[in-house]
Amino acid sequence: MHSSSTSGVRLCLNSLKSSLSLKILAFSTLFIPFHSINASKSFQYDSVVNGKQLTVVSVENSTTVFKDGAHLHGFGYDLARNYANSLNVKLVFKTVPDNATALKWVSQGKANFAMTTADVSSIEQKRLTSFSATCGDIGSLQQNGLNTNLNWVFKHADDPLTQTASGFVCKGKQSGSIRQLASFYNQNAVKEESWDSIQRDLNQRMPIYKASFKNTAAKYDLDWHLLAAIGYQESYLKPNSVSPTGVRGLMMLTNSTAKAMGVSNRTDPAQSIEGGAKYYDQMLSRYEDVPFPDRNWYALVAYNMGPGAVNQIQKRIQAQGKNPNNWVNLYSYLDRNKASNGRYRQAVQYVTRIRSYLEHIKTTQLVNI
User: Which one of 234, 274, 288, 359 is the catalytic residue?
Assistant: First the structure.
């Protein structure tokens, strides 16, 4: 081959290599993380994961978060907590008076994201990005009396934190965990027409027993409102209540439980409240591996069904490859099987009603108190 021909071939090959290299480089950038492509923009994913902390801000309401003594609970709160757990980081949850403040926190970088019911236009005005907190599963919120406008709001759409959060929420929709979580926080667990009579009961009876609830709760480091909610579920705060199965008193203790708790007279309100608080505290101690607020719900189911029954369900959940110390999993098991098991149906009703009574007692001004 002549040298001029050889040079031409080399030139052609080099040109081809150069063209291929440019195409490969352009293609490969599609797989470079966003924070590598745009170094000038400050993304939060790395700081959250490396700092082991996720800060979320919200307005306190029945859909997002509710303060239960030293602990928080609520549909939105639990959803954010589960997302934080998926990142293996600690959740720091802050509440502010209004949605405008929550959005400002995100803009200023004081929170990694906001959980808000703010309208889309106000979110866009702040140049923030948002997506449905249920991945569009509006029906689950609507059926359970929760606000269907609940959104998660982030600073940047292309932040990996935003994208992993969106993926987490949509995975929850597909698995059914969002539907189950909404079911537990059902705002219609107690019928609307029942609240007037419930309020009358509380106005008449709570002033009589409030001191006993407060003093006993303080002794066991419990929220007295929760203890009172248990008492209302058990007996409507009537100390002479008795069931066909023989449980008796304001906290409806069995004879054997009363004896074990040192209660000699089950119809004595102070003794009954003391016995109920002591037993509930023992149930909490049994589930030390379960984080709050989930531990409260585990203890309530154990108070109702007995800890042995809860432990059996936990073993079945674990055998399914799921976390037995996650409330959504325990509640889901009870709820799915309640049609064929009366004890499960009763336990679901028991814990959801106590949650409703707790929130009502906390947020409603009672007369004479």
Answer: 234
